[in-house]
Amino acid sequence: MVTLKEYVARMKEGQKDIFIITGESRAAVDASPFVEALKRKDLEVIYMVDPIDEYVIQQLKDFDGHKLKNCSKEGIDLDQNEDEKKKFEEQKASLEGLCKLIKEVLGDKVEKVQVGQILCESPCALVTGEYGWSANMERIMKAQALRDSSMQNYMVSKKTMEINPNHSIVAELKKKSDADRSDKTVRDLIWLLFDTALLASGFSLDEPSSFASRIHRMIKLGLSIDDDKIEEEMPSLEKDTAASAPESSNKMEEVD
């Protein structure tokens, strides 16, 4: 346990905000890609794992002149030197086409797709708007027996997908999408990345059976089971909106 006063007393030099994260349990927030990234930068994160914490931080916006920032939401600003800023702008420009393709494939599942600044080991993650519900608050509200559905529609998390410009998966997706934007393999993998990002970021899956089908298909490909058999036995990985895209001759094994 730690008090806000103790946290502020040992903040790193130049750190402006108090970083927090809410979740169902310590294990759940420990697995967050944002916690992992901030720890890599030697920044402490306060774990708030009691349901009441979600309501407290809606009123407690700052402490001792420092804003409380939920690291699972947009608006996390880490000080960067000029070289880091220049590199980040170059990466944003380089990945602009991939961001547009991901948004096109996912449609209204995400509000926007952008290059993230703090991700380390994860290829992507989902953040919510600064003033909307966090993933944990969305989970709490969905569990209410007498919830106000109109409020849920208004406050439901507007998800932004952030991609890691330094991750090998992102680099390979960019290479393949640059070669062929209609490559079915790329579109399938985008959906897999989105579903795994949902789980890692604390959300629940809308269609668990579809996710399971994708994983089963990946396992079959990993075991070198004939593609024709997979096509017969497994549903298409793409959503209906992308079903009309021309099928690429590339094999899933080439991504491995």
What would you note in describing this structure?
With 256 residues, the chain is an alpha/beta fold. The chain folds into 2 domains: 1-72, Rossmann fold (3-Layer(aba) Sandwich); 96-256, Up-down Bundle (Four Helix Bundle (Hemerythrin (Met), subunit A)). Helix content is 46%, strand content 11%. The protein has helices spanning 4-9, 26-30, 33-40, 51-59, 82-94, 96-106, 135-142, 149-155, 168-179, 184-200, 208-222, 227-233, and strands at residues 18-22, 46-48, 62-63, 66-70, 112-115, 124-127, 160-163. It has a 4-stranded mixed sheet with strand order 2-1-4-3. A 3-stranded mixed sheet has the order 5-7-6. A hairpin with a 2-residue loop joins strand 3 (62-63) and strand 4. The longest helix has 17 residues, at 184-200. The protein is globular. Residues 240-256 have low confidence and may be disordered.
Write a concise keyword list for the protein shown above.
disordered C terminus, 12 helices, 256 residues, Four Helix Bundle (Hemerythrin (Met), subunit A), 4-stranded mixed sheet
